[in-house]
Amino acid sequence: MITIQTLVFNQWQENTYLLYDETGEAVLIDCGAFYQEEHNRIKSIVELKGLKIVHLLNTHLHIDHVFGNQFMKDEFGLSTKAHKADEFLLAEAPNYGVRLGLNNVVEPPPMGDAIKEGDIIRFGNSELKVLHVPGHSPGHVVFYNEAQKFVIAGDVLFRESIGRTDFPYGNFDDLVTGIKTKLFVLDEDVIIYPGHGPITTIGHEKRNNIFLKS
Known about the structure:
Elements: E1 3-9, E2 14-20, E3 25-29, H1 36-49, E4 52-57, H2 69-76, H3 89-99, E5 120-123, E6 126-132, E7 141-145, E8 150-154, E9 157-158, E10 161-162, H4 172-183, E11 191-194, E12 200-201, H5 202-208
Parallel strand pairs: 3-4, 8-11
Antiparallel strand pairs: 1-2, 2-3, 5-6, 6-7, 7-8, 9-10, 11-12
């Protein structure tokens, strides 16, 4: 049984997700921890619960989702697993930080293993399936657990909204197509854990998301 803990980090109120099961093995998804106190919070939770983080994952590599990747490398020896199509975004992080008024952003560490559509990420007795849903970024993926019916969705799908596509390399048509063909085919009670804001469900978004009306 997977436990999902949401940690809200940085100026953009980004949702970092810690997933673990009864074995104590865990994955951390989209480590947006920017400040030292945010780093300390992750360490404290891991120590308190006796967890072993075996994977660092990224739905995508925009700056607010990778702030903590260097910390994870230093503290736990983990390099993020992400889609190859987003790898170039890591080198852009410092300049993007400056544009956002953050002058102390360093380039995140290099990516580890690349992941792709259909890959299975295993930890403990649990697994996550990788679905490639580009549009917010070229290599955006989501992580689907069929047994407990949830998706860690990053910035693809929010409660009654979708990820921005006005950033460089964004594509509105690709994003909408991906949501409808990869996510809206799932059961309506599948829970969506987004990269920002509150959780939602597939059914709620089918009925209420104005960006996705046919």
